[in-house]
Design brief:
Blueprint (H helix, E strand, L loop, with lengths): L1 H30 L6 H8 L3 H7 L3 H12 L1 H12 L4 H17 L1 H9 L1 H6 L1 H17 L6 H19 L8 H26 L1
Helix pairs in contact: 1-2, 1-4, 1-7, 5-6, 5-9, 6-10, 6-11, 10-11
Keywords: DNA-binding
InterPro entries: DNA-bd_HTH_TetR-type_CS, Homeodomain-like_sf, HTH-type_Tx_Regulator, HTH_TetR
Protein name: TetR family transcriptional regulator
Length: 199
Amino acid sequence: MGGTMDGTKQRRRGNTRQRIQDVALELFAEQGYEKTSLREIAERLEVTKAALYYHFKTKEEIIVSIFEDLTKPIEELIEWGRQQPHSLDTKQEIVRRYSQALTDAAPLFRFMQENQATVRELSIGEMFKNRMLGMRDIVIDPDSDLVDQVRCISALFTLHAGMFLLQDLEGDPVDKHKAVLEVATDLVTQAHQGTRTAR
């Protein structure tokens, strides 16, 4: 019985935590990470600084928690990918899921793009590098030749580029997203066919 009560309390707390994260990310985007204070975050949330403090003691704690929450699907994808054979289906599924994870975490990646110096100083820079290495390891087939390995890694960067560089291009965002996904999928498919003919 007590367990259910705790669960509800956890969830309620989780919502406040999420609101703090969303508002902090909004402010970081508007005026930069350095210029934003915890007090301003509390004011926009219309809570006391003490209430904010209950969840997070520093701005870095907020951004690290956002990073951990929003990149959890990427971490889960890496875990899943490690268990899979290096098949074409696996690679196409990795591209599809990674594309979705990037879309869901878009505000975070925008923050990282606009605050690169800060990101390098914060622990999330290192964490992001590790996630990227994990993605690289599951998308390339170590037995394939270098050109095909580069194609697979390029598929990941195509998805990244799609998030930022295509924003200014004319066109429907849904169509742009589809086009990016198609190119990334083509790259891993081509790489896989290269592997097959080589054997």
